[in-house]
Specification:
With 437 residues, this protein is α/β, with parallel strands linked by helices. It has 13 helices and 17 strands. Strand 1 and strand 2 form a beta hairpin. It is globular and about 70 Å long.
Length: 437
């Protein structure tokens, strides 16, 4: 750990764009406060600078003999080892292919791994749509449930694995929820999956910038088979992301995305494809996205995940304690025993729609939050209406009521949390006077 709470301003100095002024409803201009880090984080300055530097020597990747092409290819190819190291995948069993996002990575994986519409995939009711629709549209999906606090029921995963008697091919689960911030014990889930002959796929979009993650478990049966993540949630711009996966398994399959760069030879009536990772990267690559991502990873390791976790948990507790003191605030998830939650809080305010809360925060103090159902509709329904039968929603398939989400990053500070609480208090008093909540 190279920095402590007293020097958190040094991290703010590392961020690009957080001091830019935006206009309030009153036309006054102030720096924005971003509490929507679960959706997208601002980039590190060093990531932007590295992109500019590397673009001076930019050439085609793997397609040219010029000096710039060779330099670009080296940065791109060597970056795979940086990704493997960042996620504790320092083993020859793994390879890395680059993607545009977690959604892109999940779809490429699913298009390759699913061979038959009757293949069975076990996922959960906690998942982001990217780790739900991707599989349900290609395979037979079965779902493990969550409890009334929103935690994943691990025993339900084992129940389903037993029920299907080795017929489940893949278990796909989020490492951390984008709604509640619950962190799942994916290594334990991996052990269960492997016991019943399944492979495990982990959605790492939310955990990558907040917790140290290791693909290798304490024993081989706890190893993660595939890990998918996005760079735009870990302080890098221009999209990007990657899949870290078992090289042997990836070489057995081919994604349903075709083009140049993935082939060894094409004849009139036959094609010979390259091995992984190349056959998963058809077309022109997002080089700036890869460069920014690699620099962001280097910077996150330099800051240290011990500090990141401690700092973000401190902001979480401060905001949660403040919201608990306001009688009109309804909080979701376990707000008493939250050691397994990251820096994400979800709530509603009595008497006002969640989108109006978000508009008030933005218009009165440029505080950015997320409102709605966070691309996780089945999960949000279970949180907002835990005692309702969920199949009733399927009759019309209408969107859930939604909530407001506050999510913290390493650069946020206590002053921003206090400002947020003051604005919520102001809005609460205004609504209380009208509606008597």
């Amino acid at each position: 750990m190279w920095i402590d709470n007293q020097h958190s301003c040094r991290i703010r100095d590392m961020m690009f764009g957080i001091n830019s002024l935006v206009e309030l409803d009153s036309k006054r201009k102030v720096p924005a406060i971003n509490f929507d880090n679960a959706a997208t984080t601002p980039p590190f300055k060093c990531a932007m600078e590295e992109i500019t530097k590397q673009l001076l020597y930019y050439g085609s990747i793997g397609r040219g003999e010029g000096q710039k092409s060779e330099h670009t290819s080296d940065v791109y190819i060597n970056g795979r080892d940086i990704v493997k190291d960042f996620f504790g995948a320092n083993s020859d069993i793994y390879t890395v292919f680059y993607t545009n996002s977690t959604t892109d990575g999940m779809n490429k994986l699913a298009s390759a791994l699913i061979e038959n519409r009757e293949d069975i995939v076990l996922t959960t009711r906690m998942e982001h749509h990217a780790n739900d629709l991707t599989w349900r549209e290609r395979s037979k999906t079965v779902y493990a449930e969550v409890d009334n606090k929103g935690r994943l029921i691990i025993a339900d995963i084992e129940r389903l694995l037993k029920k299907y008697g080795g017929k489940i091919k893949y278990v796909t689960v989020t490492a951390a929820s984008n709604v509640t911030g619950y962190v799942n014990d994916v290594h334990h889930i991996a052990k269960l999956a492997h016991r019943y002959g399944a492979k495990i796929i982990v959605d790492g979009a939310q955990i990558a910038a907040h917790r140290a993650f290791c693909m290798l478990g304490q024993t081989p049966d706890e190893n993660i088979d595939f890990f998918v993540f996005s760079a735009h949630k870990m302080y890098s711009p221009f999209g990007g992301g990657a899949v870290v996966g078992l090289a042997r398994e990836l070489n057995k399959h081919i994604p349903k995305f075709y083009g140049g760069g993935m082939v060894e030879s094409v004849c009139d009536n036959s094609v010979r494809y390259l091995s992984a990772p190349d056959k998963f990267e058809a077309g022109s690559q997002n080089y700036p996205g890869v460069v920014g991502m690699l620099k962001a990873m280097e910077t996150l390791k330099y800051i240290g995940f011990d500090y990141i976790r401690k700092h973000e948990q401190g902001l979480f507790r401060r905001a949660l304690d403040g919201l608990k003191k306001l009688p009109g605030v309804i909080l979701y998830g376990d707000c008493d025993n939250f050691a397994d939650r990251m820096g994400i809080i979800i709530f509603t305010l009595c008497g006002i729609k969640n989108e109006e809360v978000a508009k008030f925060l933005a218009g009165h103090r440029a505080i950015a939050v997320r409102c709605g159902a966070f691309c996780a509709h089945p999960y949000v329904r279970r949180l907002t209406r835990p005692n309702k039968k969920q199949n009733q929603a399927d009759m019309l398939c209408t969107p859930p009521e939604g909530m407001v989400r506050v999510s913290f990053g390493i650069y946020n500070n206590e002053a921003e949390v206090d400002c947020f609480l003051e604005i919520i208090k102001e809005l609460h008093h205004k609504i209380f006077r009208v509606n008597k909540c």
